[in-house]
Design goal:
single chain; alpha/beta; Rossmann fold; seven-stranded mixed beta sheet; two-stranded antiparallel ribbon; 10 helices; 9 strands; 36% helix; globular
Length: 273
């Protein structure tokens, strides 16, 4: 989402600052550390950690990060990444292009909920983090939370817990009026047609991207992540749940509140030798 001001700010300012604050509370310093950003996407957060916060960063992703576009965007916003210790490497499924124990810290920001090879992911994370190094994990939104479908602009809260995938796809295919109006240049859009028209996007393109986003969610829970960490030689340190008030729908009363209520979490873990 290069070019989007809100997206840029959230990944250049907000996310790196949250990570630094959370790690610093456990005495873990980002400045001067070698960091692996697992699932770096467009690379904005990795760039900020290197340029703003003084870390040496390698961003990993299944899809090649457009480093040229990132450098161009950063320069247009007043940041020169050319002298920053920053690089990007494409992931081969099940293997990271990195040496054993190459990094002091591994970061997983809104990534683990999209990983289907969970064991391979955690095995490689352990391999490339130094003994006694640290892993930071953030997941938001969690699958059982009200926006766990990742499609809060298009679906009602908890729709993914009510309907099958085929029903969700049909809801998206026939979507007209938006759940809540969305901002567009010069006002707001009440319908999907108005929104796509303002963006100059074809419906078929939007539809395929939106279904792909829904299908990318792996339904993982924090308890499953805990088990993965423990089975792969990590010891969990601090955990923070992101919570808020929800109204529990009548048709979802039997789902444990411990799954419905947390929107997400952050945690740190250290890698045993």
């Amino acid at each position: 989402m290069l070019g989007d001001d809100a997206w840029w700010e959230s990944h250049w300012e907000t996310a790196p600052d949250e990570i630094c604050h959370f790690l610093a509370s456990d005495g873990i310093q980002v400045a001067g550390a070698s960091i692996a950003d697992f699932g770096c996407g467009d690379g904005i957060m990795a760039g900020a950690l290197a340029c703003r916060l003084g870390a040496s960063v390698v961003g990993f992703d299944l899809y090649a990060t457009d480093a040229l576009a990132l450098h161009t965007e950063a320069k247009a916003r007043g940041h020169d990444l050319s002298a920053s210790p920053l690089e990007f490497r494409t992931i081969v499924p099940g293997a990271l292009d990195a040496r054993d124990g190459e990094f002091d810290i591994g970061l997983s920001w809104s990534a683990m909920e999209h990983v289907f090879d969970r064991v391979g992911y955690m095995r490689e994370a352990r391999r490339v983090i130094k003994p006694y190094g640290h892993l930071f994990v953030q997941v938001w939104p969690m699958w059982h939370s009200e926006h766990g479908h990742h499609l809060w602009q298009w679906l009602q809260p908890f729709d993914h817990l009510r309907y099958s995938r085929d029903e969700i796809v049909e809801k998206l295919r026939t979507l007209d009026r938006l759940p809540t109006p969305l901002e567009i240049g010069g006002g707001t859009a009440d319908t999907l047609g108005e929104y796509l028209g303002a963006l100059g996007m074809e419906h078929d393109t939007w539809f395929s991207q939106t279904v792909a986003s829904y299908d990318s969610c792996n339904r993982i829970t924090i308890d499953e992540i805990q088990t993965l960490l423990l089975e792969h030689g990590f010891s969990i340190g601090r955990v923070e749940f992101m919570t808020g008030q929800i109204h529990v729908p009548e048709d979802l009363q039997s789902i444990p509140l411990s799954r419905l209520s947390p929107n997400g979490f952050k945690l740190t873990a250290w890698r045993k030798p």
